[in-house]
Design goal:
alpha+beta; two-stranded antiparallel ribbon; 21% strand; 207 residues
Length: 207
């Protein structure tokens, strides 16, 4: 599926995600080596990538609310960015990192890019298991782990319920003295969010 996803981008003319979108979907539909379920998953990935780039960078076509719930227009096709933002804002009271600036940074990222599987979240340390060290440097140590709940895959807009993938393997970066974060740590969090805005990530601290 990864090969077909990459080929659809390589062989479809257009200068950006929006211009290539319909052609990429057609390329996947015409591919003979994928099952219908695999085609659906590849096209979903293409749509989510298009939505993220149209929302964050291109700011091109606008689409009506995908569930006809809020009657607002936005830059995302698969989901309604406004309904998702409403769900995230309602959930803000249910979690905290313990640091107001980190909370604000994470919440801002969720509102800027409220697309499933692209959400930057605060994950409690207790929701990680099978933690294994893989590398150690002067300022940080890296681990692999299993995130027991997994990433956010979809949102029920009516009930504001978050549906998750289930157990997911992740990479952790542990900072020294991160239980008392200074400005350097805050800047690192900002940098990670900018770098990883379109992929799944975990930010966690432990003294």
């Amino acid at each position: 599926m990864n090969d077909v996803h990459n080929e659809s981008n390589l062989f479809t003319p257009g200068k950006d995600f929006n211009e290539k979108y319909e052609g990429r979907l057609k390329y996947v539909d015409n591919h003979t080596n994928l099952t219908e379920e695999e085609k659906f998953l590849v096209k979903q990935r293409i749509t989510r990538n298009k939505d993220a780039r149209n929302l964050l960078d291109i700011r091109g076509p606008k689409y009506p609310c995908s569930t006809n719930t809020c009657n607002r227009y936005g830059y995302t096709l698969e989901i309604c960015e406004h309904c998702h933002r409403d769900a995230f804002e309602q959930n803000f009271a249910n979690w905290t990192s313990g640091n107001a600036e980190i909370d604000e940074t994470l919440r801002s990222s969720q509102l800027n890019c409220p697309i499933p599987q692209s959400i930057i979240e605060w994950i409690e340390f207790e929701k990680l298991r099978n933690i294994k060290q893989v590398a150690k440097g002067n300022c940080a140590t890296f681990y692999t782990a299993e995130w027991t709940e997994g990433c956010l895959e979809s949102i029920d807009i009516v009930s504001k319920t978050f549906h998750r993938s289930g157990p997911l393997n992740v990479l952790l970066k542990w900072f020294k003295k991160s239980n008392d974060p200074n400005q350097t740590f805050i800047n690192e969090v900002h940098f990670l969010i900018l770098l990883l805005i379109s992929i799944k990530t975990v930010i966690s601290t432990e003294s």
